[in-house]
Amino acid sequence: MTSTSLRVAALVFVAACGPGATSAGPTSPAPPTTAAEPAPAAPAAPATPAAPTAGARRPSAPGPNLTPEGVVFNFKPDGGKGKKIFLAGNFNDWKPDNPQYLMTDDGTGTWTITVKLPPGTYQYKYVIEGTNWVKDPYSPGDAPDGFGGRNGKFDVK
What we know:
- This protein is mainly β.
- It has a single domain (45-156), classed as Immunoglobulin-like (Sandwich).
- The protein has one helix at residues 3-17, and strands at residues 48-49, 63-67, 70-75, 85-89, 104-105, 111-116, 120-128, 132-134, 141-144, 150-156.
- The strands form two sheets. Strands 1, 2, 3, 5 and 6 form a five-stranded antiparallel β-sheet that branches.
């Protein structure tokens, strides 16, 4: 588990249990290390879509949802289904057609993707059919997009 995953898991734990709660730690023991052996540093990694975890249940709430697996984005476009919906934001240089950020339809018209993100503040939009940039109406915050509209905005701690 990366340090980002641990921070997200701690955030989810505190949000669910309250700020005074504590955790007993991981459920499986860590491999033994010698006292002279330093722990390896986690390399900084760019944002990447996460592969679904077997048996893991994705949050179904609209908007960005922080989970131990990454940020799960759920979007249900108005007016029916799109054929291709991408996620674009400052985490992928606002590329509206990056195949790594192609969302998948869950069969109910809700489009979803999970993205691993390091701590920071992020802005994003959904891109329908390559030309229609849509702000997430369920984003926890927003910011000017520089074109007279608004971007969705959220923080990963």
